[in-house]
Give the backbone structure.
Amino acid sequence: MAWNRKHLLDIESLSADEIRLILDTARAFKAVGERAIKKVPALRGKTVINLFVEPSTRTRTSFELAAIRLSADVINFSTEASSFKKGETLKDTARNLEALSADIIIIRHSAAGAPHFLSRVLLASVVNAGDGAHEHPTQALLDIFTILEKKGRIAGLKVTILGDILYSRVARSDIWALLKLGAQVTLCGPPTLVPKTFEQMGCRVTHDLDDAIRDADIINLLRIQHERQRKAMFPSLSEYTSLYGLNRARLAITKPDALLMHPGPINRGVEIDSESADGERSVILEQVTNGLAVRMAVLFLINGGVGPQEIAA
Ligand code: CP
């Protein structure tokens, strides 16, 4: 199939074939990253702007490196040093960046729907790097890419997402991607953070940690998104950790080849202990590595790239 989208705004609107095309293209870019010369000219002459209005370590850095590896000119917009501080709106800010010849604007914003809004008012391509609690599409794509590398398939796998689902954009994007590709998704955490309404998406919901992890092939942990919670959602962090934190004793009841994932940032000692986070079942840093190839694929495709066949062997 051919890619014919100008923007990447979410996973919900993608077909399974579109997701597979991004993953196949990312696989070709991962091979490029293993060569002596890691750059390709695909975005030469194009300008990519990282418009991050919320903090980020992994996503911003890997989008920047992805654009550099594709030979684009890259600008990292700094909110703190910007005219946001003088009351300029998001629309005016983005239109001014576009007036400076931005071809692709990558946006992270606390408001759900901010990337969709920009896609309607700009001529440039827009990539969602995380919008509120709505979606984080490239995180889901790199998660799926990592699972495929390790397990060779998605269909039929039992994937448990554990933690603060309600406020997590990663959870929503992961759920859409996993279900479209045929995985069985279980969500687990305190009832206040994992309401039964998620069953309407096609997931199983349980509040019993042992039940959630015993048969899982993949355990994907999420941190508590304090920045988006307007009130206390559980009595204390220590109670959360004692009921839902992953540690050596809990790992002992899981399948021996179950993989541990986490989008980062990790709150060590809360949702996962350090021994498990750094242990041999953890693929957390491989997820970060794969984010580069996935983001190269996304920028390449929305710039008009056709697919992996275009990336020279
Ligand atoms: N996973 C993720 O989005 O990390 P950052 O917030 O550091 O980009």
Remarks:
- The domain at 137-287 is CATH 3.40.50.1370 (Rossmann fold).
- The CA atoms of residues 166 and 193 lie 5 Å apart.
